[in-house]
Specification:
Layout (H helix, E strand, L loop, with lengths): L1 H9 L4 H6 L6 H9 L5 H13 L6 H8 L1 H35 L11 H9 L1 H31 L7 H12 L12 H25 L13 H14 L6 H6 L10 H24 L21 H35 L7 H21 L5 H26 L3 H5 L11 H39 L30 H7 L3
Helix pairs in contact: 4-10, 4-13, 5-6, 5-11, 5-13, 6-7, 6-11, 6-13, 6-16, 7-8, 8-9, 8-14, 8-15, 8-16, 9-15, 10-13, 10-14, 11-16, 11-18, 14-15, 16-18
């Protein structure tokens, strides 16, 4: 029986890979495979790592100013492990669902499996509906956040245009992601994205250390409960980027190998997020409370050639935002395609045209709520807490609640977690903790902070947290002659609204 299970599990592979085995490789196919057709363990690792950190890298120093240094470090480690655990659960449920379906001879040749379909197949339509609602809403606002980040980052290179105008521009740019068919095709982009994120992280670290602490720097965090739980929820969001885990797994030739990939990606991401967040918070302290984007506090040209490097870093982050926008939006494209019956269409142009309506509400929401930083925490508390942590943990509990289901599970729990009893205990802990701390306290704090941003800046704000324009200097009076007062008609004309 065990041998049969292993054999059937291995069958849950990728059809495209199986079809290409044994066929002669031309230069075109070699080129396509190298840059375009990804499905290996390394592709999945690059996708998870580049998707996980993204623009949150720039808001973590802001979170440290809310949490304080010690809590910031501990929450990163804690939520990093918790996020890896729930990604592991999702991978187990995906393999369980796909293996069951392929035993029934279901063909996924032209169909991308998604999380709500896994819930439907294992637990029924009610779970599917809940999972679909949370997942789609999270991915929608996740895409909104990436678009806001694009505008925020480019503004610190070129402030001739305000952030809202840059949002218009990058909304059009990000719409080009409709032409990327699936997660198979992010190979080169994932690699470049992670390379650029790594460079950005170490730039922030080194630049902050070279800059040194600002005069009179204060590190008063945590000072308020609202700020404390807002910062904690932002970190919850940081390591909750695996709402696209199922799609990444489905793009693998051997999805069974995904189990430890997310953990390894998280460990690498922590080597990027901790040094940069610690260094920037050490240098600027409480100033970060009013600057959610870390780039806002680093001088443009403090060390001569550093201005050029800063520009390159910004450009690198903009490319990464495009990649991450695609990661967040592609599952929404799939859902929309399935809803209108276009998912199995082989015409790339027709599918791209059908996807365009998905981008429009994302574009609009990014213009309404341009609150870079606070929106991360709000999405994390209200959506990520359920989508990424609570629902997968409960789904695993209910899928294997019966002795028969546990006995016939495709993969048995490892000894190091204490088998089924250990897994149940960890799952219950995750559900209780995230519901109380992430959704409960975090939701209260994040929504309070978000409402404060609306009251302070207003909706459709033109340039969120932009420095005020310098006051206009009075023109010098030549020869010490007082300018004549304009005639009444001209004076009225000059001051007419």
């Amino acid at each position: 029986m065990a041998t049969d299970k292993v054999a059937e599990t291995v069958m849950a592979g990728n059809y495209v890979e199986m079809e290409t085995e044994g066929k002669p490789r031309t230069m075109k196919t070699r080129f396509s495979k190298f840059f375009w057709d990804g499905g290996s363990v390394y592709d999945a690792w690059f996708s998870c790592a580049s998707n996980q950190v993204a623009q949150v890298l720039l808001t973590l120093p802001y979170s440290f100013s809310q949490l304080g240094m010690l809590s910031g470090v501990l929450f990163q480690l804690f939520y990093g492990l918790m996020g890896s655990w729930t990604a592991y659960l999702i991978s187990l449920l995906y393999v369980e669902y796909r293996t069951r379906k392929e035993r029934e001879k279901v063909d996924f040749r032209n169909h991308v499996i998604q999380w709500f379909e896994v819930l439907d197949g294992l637990l029924g339509k009610h779970w599917r509906n809940v999972g679909l609602a949370f997942n789609c809403t999270f991915l929608l606002f996740g895409s909104v956040i990436q678009l806001i980040a694009c505008a925020s980052n480019i503004y610190y290179i070129n402030d001739n245009l305000d952030k809202r105008t840059w949002t218009y521009i990058f909304g059009a740019c990000c719409a080009t992601t409709v032409f990327i068919p699936s997660f198979h095709n992010y190979r080169i982009w994932s690699f470049l994205g992670l390379l650029m994120t790594t460079y950005t992280s170490w730039y922030l670290t080194i630049a902050a250390l070279l800059h040194g602490q600002v005069e009179g720097v204060k590190h008063s965090g945590p000072s308020k409960l609202v700020l404390y739980f807002t910062g904690a929820t932002n970190i919850l969001y940081t390591f909750g980027g695996h709402a696209v885990t199922v799609e990444i797994m489905h793009a693998m030739w051997k999805p069974q190998k995904f189990k430890s990939i997310y953990l390894l990606a998280t460990l690498y991401v922590i080597t990027l997020t901790l040094p940069s967040a610690i260094a920037v918070y050490w240098a600027f302290g409480d100033m970060l409370l009013d600057h959610a984007n870390a780039f806002a506090l680093l001088p443009r040209s403090p060390f001569r050639d550093m201005a050029v490097i800063l520009m390159l870093i910004h450009q690198a982050m903009l490319v990464l935002q495009f990649i991450t926008f695609g990661f967040a939006c592609t599952p929404l494209y799939f859902v929309w395609e399935k809803a209108i019956g276009m998912h199995e269409c082989k015409s790339l142009c027709k599918r791209a045209a059908a996807r365009l309506p998905v981008v429009i509400p994302i574009w609009f929401l990014a213009i309404i709520f341009p609150f870079f930083g606070p929106i991360n925490s709000t999405v994390g508390s209200l959506l990520v807490s359920f989508t990424v942590y609570i629902i997968p943990s409960l789904a695993h509990i209910f899928t294997f609640r019966s002795a028969t289901a546990r006995e016939n599970a495709v993969e048995q729990p490892p000894k190091w977690v204490g088998r089924w009893a250990g897994m149940y205990s960890i799952n219950v802990f995750v559900v209780v903790w995230v519901f109380l701390v992430g959704f409960g306290f975090g939701g209260w704090a994040s929504v309070t902070n978000f409402i404060h941003q609306i009251d302070t800046f207003g909706l459709f704000t033109k340039c969120y947290q932009c420095p005020p324009p310098p006051p206009l200097a009075s023109p010098p009076h030549l020869y010490n002659v007082t300018a004549a007062t304009p005639p009444p008609a001209l004076h009225h004309h000059l001051h007419r609204p």
